[in-house]
Structure formats: C-alpha cells, structure tokens
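Action item from last week, closing it out:
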Amino acid sequence: MDAITATQTYLVQAYQRPPFVLEDGHGVWLRDTAGRDYLDLVAGIAVNALGYGDPELVAALQAAAEKPLHFSNLYHSQPMATLAQRLVELTPFADRVHFQNSGAEANEAAIKFARKWAREQYGEGKSDIVTFSGAFHGRTMGALAATPRPKYQDPFRPLMPGVRLAPFNDPAAAAATIDDGVCAVIVEPVQGEGGVHPASNEFLLALRELTHAHNALLILDEVQCGVGRTGQFWAHESYGILPDLLTAAKPLANGLPIGVALASERVAAAIHPGDHGTTFAGGPFVTAVADVVTRRVADPAFLTQVRETGAYFKERLQEINSPHIREVRGRGLMLGVQLDIETGPLIQRGFAAGLLLLNAGPDVLRLLPPLIISRAEVDIAIERLSALFADL
C-alpha cells in the first residue's frame, strides 16, 4: 500500500497533508517520491536548523548509533552530562537542566517547577500562571491551558485551573493581572504560532520587574524562537533581561525529539527525586546529536550569518510588490508576512512552485527556513513568492 493510502487508512486524521510523499533532502531542499524538489521554508516547523544531510551531523548520528540508544535516567551517561554543561554555559541565568522529549513537555515541566517552588517558598495559595493573548505553549493539558485559543482549548475542557490571561505587549494590563497569587508568568519573546510577533522591550522589562515585585518566576518559552532562530542563541539576549526558567526544544537535535527546561539554582533546588520524571528524555543517542547541533549553532560566526541572511530575507520580502502584503515582521530567520487574505491558497500553490510554506493563523505567512539558507536561496524564494503573489 502506498504511503498516502496507508496514512489515510491507518493514522488518526489529526493533520491535513498535501498529496505528495517526501523521501530525501539536501541542504535546504527536500525531494518527493516523484523526483520533485522543494525549497524548504518550514524546516519541520523551526526544527531542522542545519538542514538535511549535514556531514558532521550524519557522522554524529552514525557514531551515536553504534552505542546503546537508551539507558534511562536511572543511570549516568556522558552525552547527557556534556550537553547539560554546554547549555548551562550558554545560558547566563541557568544552573540546571531537565531534559524532556518536546517543547510541550518542557513547558509542562516549567509549570510544575514553578508551582513546586512557590509551594516550598510561600505555602499554598500562590499557584496561578499568567499567559498572554496569541500565546502557544503546547497541546498537553497544562500547556494547553496556557494557550488561549478556543479552537485548541474548547474540545478538551475542563482545562487545568489557575491560569490568568492578559493582552500581549501591554505592560499596564500585565501589571493589573500579576499579583501575589501568581507563581509564574510564561511568555514567548517572539510569538510564533500567534503570528510572529516580537515582544517589545518595554513589555519584557515590565514582566521582569513585576515578577520580581510579586515574588513570581519569569518563564521564557523559546521552543520556537530559541537556539539561533532570531540570530542570537537565545531570543531574549537582545532584551537585557534574565528569566528564572527557560524552555527550548525544536531545533536542539535537528529533528530528533528533545526538549529542555533550564532553571536557576533557586528554582531547581525545589525539585527533589520523584517530583518529576520521564522515561526517554536525556538518552545518550539524542543528547550526543544535540550537542553537535548546539555547538554549531552557538558559534558566533554562524549566528552572525543568521542575522545577516535574516535581514536580507526581510528586505527582499518588503520588495515584493503585492497589494495583499500589509507588513513584514520578525527577527533573524523567523519572519512573518501579514496578509489581507487567508494564507491557505498561497501555501497550496506553493507546492506546485516548489516551495514549502507555513502559516501562523489564517492570514500570516510564516517563514522558518533552515538556518543554513544562503542569500542565493533567499533570492530563489523571493522569485517564486513574487510569482505566487502575482498569480493571486
């Protein structure tokens, strides 16, 4: 049975997939079983930072596969320890790492850590989490409660209690929402699913001050915007603040499942054996590969290239002459094109033009190419996007 028929027959139909089957890739290009090539501007939803077929990454995968794939967290392993050390050294506020399997799990861990910390420090009654309009923190039940979208939430109510909602990028509203009953505030420095909206400097600074004032923790969700995507290793670096917890996942192992919650010592000290756990996270195979990705992406020259290519991509997008483009926004290689029409037809036409495109809500085109994309490949993307907009 072919892949499309088998998928439609045997998989839960939770996704709408286009009518082709991807089977190979190189650099920033993917190829389907019919031999058609696609310029990938999705990167597995901000996952494949080093693209496809990277020689060093392939060698790391092969070397790791020759050793045991799994020991569990019952035992020490060198790859897990090495990656944890590298992540802490790259993250000025962080002292400890807790490995997870995904971004949603990392956010679940951060919520649990915050509540446990608040209970130990202040007793019961300080347990509320503040989230913001447009946020996306995951689809598991705790993370879903902090993802204020009726489409995602309503079918699964009742949700986890104790979550407060405030408008994004509104310091005054945040001040009216955060009080001493709040244990943590969770926010994305650059919202991804919410439409590629960067937080303002004023907003993140206000959140840091408010959380200090009310003895609450600041959790930065960098699952999508972190690990080089904005041209800094962590997106919050350009804001001049330090959080108490940070979550990351998507690009860390270039496609293998991994998530992390990074914590300061004062937060990590509240977690004791048995408080939280996971069977698969932190395994030697995944962490060995993730260490290579992290080292590569953290290289200053690599990050400079991301910033420069991202700025070039943004400039070229602004040159597209289309009445349907209202705004181009974003940082580094995390870009959003605000349209006055729905993105669906554009994405569908992109397949025939050899482009893989992504939306962020109904009317924002989200561009998340592998971080290795070149200016020449940006030019190809702009040429094809311009033709698509002209056809509209």
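Closing note: The first strand starts at residue 22 and ends at 26.
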